[in-house]
Amino acid sequence: MGKKIVATNAAPKAIGPYSQAVRNGTWAFISGCLPADPVTGDLTGGDIRTQTARVLDNMKEVLKACKMEFKHVIKTTVFVTNLADFADMNDVYAKYFTENPPARSTVQVAALPKGALVEIEAVARK
């Protein structure tokens, strides 16, 4: 099975030479989602809770374009600019992954595109 590029206008467009997601058979690889407005591409929310919700709302739309849901996500990587925000990010994250949450890594990074506080990428399988 070959790779299929997945894109949706319901999530922000890629800001570089990458795809929102790539599907290969039953697998989907979701690029890092930022807390950007799908229409304007501008960052939304100034705090970690609001940005995490926007990131996961964007991811939901990309998953939908892959014909998947959060229950299909098997691994995420969360990038935050401040690990002191971990508890607040985690609280919002838990509202999206309500049962059988995926494996996850959380990493503090020096900076994220557009000055975001959080970015999340995922691997899903249906």
Would you spell out the secondary-structure blueprint of this structure?
Layout: E1 3-6, E2 21-24, E3 27-33, H1 48-65, E4 73-80, H2 86-96, E5 103-108, E6 118-125
Instruction: Tell me the CATH topology.
Output: 60s Ribosomal Protein L30, Chain: A
Structural class of the secondary structure composition? Answer: alpha+beta
What does the oligomeric state look like here?
single chain
As for the number of domains, it is 1
CATH arch. level architecture: 2-Layer Sandwich
For the sheet with most strands, the description reads:
6 strands, mixed
Mean pLDDT across the residues is 97
- Pattern of helices and strands: EEEHEHEE
- Helix content percent band: 10-25%
Question: Can you describe this structure?
Answer:
This protein is an alpha+beta fold and 126 residues long. It has a single domain, classed as 2-Layer Sandwich (60s Ribosomal Protein L30, Chain: A), CATH 3.30.1330.40. The chain is built from 2 helices and 6 strands; from the N terminus they run βββαβαββ. It has a 6-stranded mixed sheet with strand order 1-2-3-6-4-5, covered by helices on one side. Helix 1 (48-65) runs parallel beside helix 2 (86-96). It is globular, with a radius of gyration of 14 Å.
